[in-house]
Amino acid sequence: MRFFSEPHELEPGAGVRVDVGHDPHTGKVTVTIVPGRLQAPPGCEPGDFRPLRQRLRDYQRNLVKEALLQAGGNVSLAAERLHEDRRNFFRRVQKLGLRLDEIRTLAREGNTTTTPPHELAHANEGGEGQ
Q1: Which CA distances in Å does 58 have to 17, 111, 114?
Q2: DSSP letter at 125?
Q3: What are the C-alpha distances in Å from 43 to residues 1, 28, 74, 79, 116?
Q4: 84: helix, coil or strand?
């Protein structure tokens, strides 16, 4: 890893990702800076002209799905991580059309990545979860 003591110019399109973590048991905060390419935030891809309501739903669906995957499909743990009570979180999972059995299978297989929002647009055209 390289450290710069003076301002450093990055190549066009280059950037860094800053990951911040917190361990509630020890109270320690970790900060990781990873060099990489700049990317649009999820749901903000260039040329994505879906209605705001659909983009927000897809963004929320990805957040909930990611929390569930990281919690191994444990609804209580995922709800706690998103600071929502279990009952409302479970309703949200149902409203968003997420299938817990599929998410738990993915989590067991070690697949903890979510579908990019622009791909969700095509998957949700069939009216899933509405």
Answers
A1: 22, 19, 11
A2: G
A3: 31, 31, 25, 22, 8
A4: coil
Sign for the CA dihedral angle at 48, 55, 130, 79 comes to positive
Query: Any idea how long the chain is?
Result: 130
Helical pair 100-108 and 52-70, crossing angle rounded to 10 deg: 50
Model pTM? Answer: 0.54
Domain borders along the chain are 52-126
- Looking at residue 89, its amino acid is F
- How far, CA to CA in Å, does 62 sit from each of 58, 67, 105? 6, 8, 17
| DSSP output for 53-68 | HHHHHHHHHHHHHHHH
Distance separating the N- and C-terminal Cα atoms of the chain: 47
**pLDDT tens digit at each of 130 positions of the chain:** 455 555 555 555 556 666 677 777 787 777 766 666 556 655 566 677 788 899 889 999 999 999 999 999 999 999 999 999 999 999 999 999 999 999 999 888 887 655 544 444 444 444 443 3
